[in-house]
Automatic annotation (TrEMBL):
Residues 1-43 form the HTH gntR-type domain. GO terms for biological process: negative regulation of DNA-templated transcription. This is GntR family transcriptional regulator. One of its GO terms (molecular function) is DNA binding. Keywords: DNA-binding, Transcription, Transcription regulation. PROSITE patterns: HTH_GNTR. SUPFAM superfamilies: Chorismate lyase-like, Winged helix' DNA-binding domain. The lineage of its organism: Bacteria, Bacillati, Actinomycetota, Actinomycetes, Actinopolysporales. It comes from Haloactinomyces albus.
Length: 211
């Protein structure tokens, strides 16, 4: 589409047309080629709102009509790496529930997460249960009354390793958004850790800070 086509169709001045195209481009919905026009960017874009409660991404995607799916693998109880153990203040031999979750939207891989959670010994979800709910914390609340209170996030830009590229269907070295999350249950108790990588061109994470 071109500015001339939009002017003719909507019968408005050039200024709001240009502003609208600029905003669409900045949001990643379209891209512009000099002298040729504006073109839609193919694929799904996910905008994660700042007020989304921890563990509710799958529900948010479903309610947004984006048909999310997740594939959970590698469910096991393990002693986490030292950096995660220190981050969560664990005893030396404390074991956590560990699994990997691959999230897809409209059948396209969006994010891959490596998850460690402190859970009761009796908690042993299947891959199907974790996939259906989209959140281990939802199952914990349902079965044991353990409520996720908040999550602290750190985000940065990185590039796809060979493993991430294979999982997310992209080239090695492609840009990714990495988000490291620490989970807290009621009372501020450290409850878990997640490291997730997201396809940078398909995912936007919105932050709100106090002022």
């Amino acid at each position: 589409m071109t500015e001339a086509q939009l002017l003719s169709r909507f019968d408005v001045s050039r200024a709001p047309i240009r502003q609208a195209l600029k905003e669409l481009a900045s949001e990643g919905y379209v891209y512009r080629k000099q002298g040729r026009g504006t073109f839609p960017v193919p694929g799904v874009r996910v905008h994660r709102p700042a007020d989304l409660r921890p563990g509710a991404l799958h529900q948010y995607l479903s309610e947004s009509g984006l048909h999310p799916a997740s594939k959970v693998s590698g469910i096991e109880r393990v002693v986490p790496p030292d950096r995660i153990r220190h981050r969560l203040g664990l005893e030396a031999h404390e074991r956590l529930l560990h699994f990997t979750r691959l999230i897809s939207v409209e059948s396209e891989p969006l994010a891959e997460a490596d998850v460690y959670i402190r859970v009761p010994e009796e908690f042993s979800p299947t891959a199907a249960e974790l996939e259906d709910t989209g959140s281990a914390f939802e199952l914990l609340e349902r079965e044991f009354g353990i409520t996720l209170e908040r999550a602290d996030n750190e985000a940065w830009a990185t590039v796809a390793t060979a493993d991430h590229a294979a999982s997310l269907g992209m080239r090695e070295g492609s840009p990714l958004l990495a988000i490291e999350t620490t989970f807290y249950t009621t009372g501020g108790l450290l409850a878990g850790y997640r490291f997730a990588v997201h396809r940078a061109e398909k995912f936007k994470y919105r932050f709100v800070t106090g002022g």
